[in-house]
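A student in our group prepared the protein record below, which I am reviewing. Here is the record exactly as it was handed to me.
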Amino acid sequence: MPYFIFHVTESENAKKELQHLDTFDKYQDAKAYSRAKRAELSPETPHIQIKMMHAGTLSEAEILLTTTREAPIIGDD
């Protein structure tokens, strides 16, 4: 499965806008690319992130990034 790299912008209403940047077959290549892109980001824009997603297809990666996950239940004390 390939590694998809996205430019993620979160708006004020918690909606994520995704822009596909690149796709890699090897983790090390995807990791290096992601780090380089993150280094280009300005500290004044905390609502912008670079995300890497390991998925079968581009659409599957987009769904995984935009799906809100529930917090895990730790225990019933």
User: Anything to note?
Assistant: Residues 7 and 19 are 5 Å apart (CA to CA). DSSP finds two helices and three strands in the chain. The longest helix spans residues 27-40. The chain has one domain: 3-66.
